[in-house]
Amino acid sequence: xxxxxxxxxxxxxxxxxxxxxxxxxxxxxxxxxxxxxxxxxxxxxxxxxxxxxxxxxxxxxxxxxxxxxxxxxxxxxxxxxxxxxxxxxxxxxxxxxxxxxxxxxxxxxxxxxxxxxxxxxxxxxxxxxxxxxxxxxxxxxxxxxxxxxxxxxxxxxxxxxxxxxxxxxxxxxxxxxxxxxxxxxxxxxxxxxxxxxxxxxxxxxxxxxxxxxxxxxxxxxxxxxxxxxxxxxxxxxxxxxxxxxxxxxxxxxxxxxxx
Length: 259
Description:
It contains one helix and 14 strands, in the order H-E-E-E-E-E-E-E-E-E-E-E-E-E-E. It is mainly beta. Mean pLDDT is 82; it is low at 1-23 and 27-37.
């Protein structure tokens, strides 16, 4: 009963947050269509996802008496389309878009049994589609150069579960999405160069922190050992992937003619 109440509370909290995100997105598009259409810019983004040991994104060491596994992040990527509306002489802006995100992971394993010398590895990617909404504040450094700070939220849709086998068939992996829709806190810091004819070029760093677990990962280690027609393997306790990451943000917005 307590588990059911906790699960229900978590579900209701997530639904409330997601409802707020959709409301904010609706307000953004209303303002966009009503009074800011002359300041709308369209652009593109392509962002490498950088493996780090901060924000809970470091490698996971999974051990027992028979095997030792390491689950770590690899370089991933994001890309997508963006649009933004500027306010107050382009000192503030709201940005949204549609972004494809792929987090990449690697699993390494080694036997801890003295009588069995085995090791294996495998990799997998976890995909989601993101609808972000971020607010930006700009400080002008020169005629065309600005520094910006941003913060916002995003709605994340996870594509599917993922399963892989090790190169030697020893490690088996299955990641089940914890939920098909989630939300994330996003923020960033960067520099941009603006030119009326060439457009806007942006480079910066961003952080993405999902509000809850993105996937539940199950791992098995098979020793390739058969005794009396019984195969011996170790099934580890499930691991909960947080999905936090840092990104190198690269953006380009098309030039707009000024009347």
